Amino acid sequence: MNAIDYMDERPPPKMEERLLLIGSGNRKLRYSEIITYRVAQLHTRFNAQSTRILQTVSDISLSQWRILTVVNSSNDVTHTKISSISRIDKGQISRAVKSLIKDGYLETEDDLDDHRKSYLRLTPQASELLAKTLPLMQKRHDVLTDSLSDDQRTVLFEAFDTLDNLTELTEFT
Question: Where are the domains of the chain?
Answer without folding.
Answer: 3-154
